[in-house]
Design goal:
Helix content: over 70%
Shape: elongated
Order of helices and strands: HHHHHH
Number of helices: 6
Largest sheet: none
Oligomer: single chain
Radius of gyration: 27 Å
Distance between the termini: 82 Å
Strand content: under 5%
Number of strands: 0
């Protein structure tokens, strides 16, 4: 048995391990009870499984162009998986997540405070006590402050005002 056969068999084992990890990730997505545990099943074993499959493919192909392409795929996967998991977790938290099952809820207090401030602002606007706030939370646009029609320096008004 030469070294090429050993590398081919190692690549086959890597691919099989990767396929099994991806299968476990798929089963986890179907069987786990809530968004957060499904998020872990969708990211951790799936990413490791893909890395095993890519490693097996690199051992089979062994050309510089192919291995470089597989490395780029692996890097892209490792960069995008945590971002996707974060977005899924955040959407789940703001959606239908059963927060009573959480061990530690670091975001709950901040969201409750933001909702209370938003309700207080809406109530004040209904009573006419406060100026309306735009989406960025800046009241200067509603009151005319900082606009190009009023005061301010020529730098604030742009090049045509000079």
């Amino acid at each position: 048995m030469n070294w090429a056969a050993v590398v081919d068999w190692t690549g086959a084992v890597f691919m099989l391990l990767g396929a099994l990890l991806c299968l476990v990730a798929g089963i986890g997505l179907m069987r786990l009870p809530d968004v957060l545990t499904r998020m872990h099943a969708a990211t951790k074993p799936q990413a490791l499984g893909l890395l095993f499959v890519l490693g097996g493919a690199a051992l089979w192909l062994r050309t510089v162009v192919d291995v470089t392409t597989l490395i780029l795929i692996a890097i892209f996967q490792l960069v995008t998986t945590p971002v996707a998991a974060h977005m899924v977790g955040r959407a789940g938290y703001r959606g239908r997540l059963d927060r009573q099952r959480l061990v530690l809820d670091e975001l709950g207090e901040a969201i409750e405070e933001a909702e209370q401030r938003r309700e207080a602002q809406r109530a004040a606007e209904r009573r006419g006590e406060a100026e309306p706030v735009d989406a960025g939370g800046d009241t200067s646009a509603a009151s005319g402050e900082g606009s190009s029609e009023g005061g301010g320096s020529p730098e604030d008004r742009g090049p045509s005002a000079a």
